[in-house]
Design a protein that fits this description.
With 133 residues, the chain is an all-alpha fold. It contains five helices and no strands.
Length: 133
């Protein structure tokens, strides 16, 4: 059977007022189902995007961590030069900004799932640093 597309202007309120109760209830069930599917699809897409951001944007490159650990060892024995102190401090600030971004993204994910931030972190296997517990 061939399908034909027809365009027409319809006064929706008038059309709906002409439906019987059973037809109107069936129509409403279909609308709720459609809306639910759309929301689920939107929610899934947003969650996927947030998880991608969490994985791609929220950690320093390995080379930065290596440099941080090197500088941190020197700091522990008080042998950092003034420029190394500045570099160490910049690395600390960069990591703090990323931690804030991680918390923001985790909060958005928790809201989408309707759970608390600690529950979201637990689901993803994210543990607080030892000094934050």
């Amino acid at each position: 059977m061939q399908k034909v597309q027809v365009k027409a202007e319809v006064d929706l309120k008038s059309f709906l007022s002409q439906l019987g109760n059973q037809e109107l209830e069936a129509f409403m069930r279909e609308i709720r189902s459609l809306l639910s599917r759309r929301k689920a699809k939107d929610s899934h897409a947003k969650e996927k995007a947030l998880l991608l951001r969490l994985n791609e944007e929220c950690s320093l490159p390995e080379s930065h961590w290596e440099r941080f650990h090197f500088l941190n060892e020197k700091k522990e024995v008080n042998s950092l030069s003034p420029s190394e102190w500045e570099e160490w401090f910049q690395l600390v600030q960069a990591e703090e900004k990323l931690r804030l971004l991680r918390i923001q993204i985790l909060g958005e994910l928790a809201q989408l799932r309707g759970i608390t931030l600690p529950e979201m972190a637990a689901e993803l296997g994210i543990k607080a640093p030892g000094h934050a517990e």
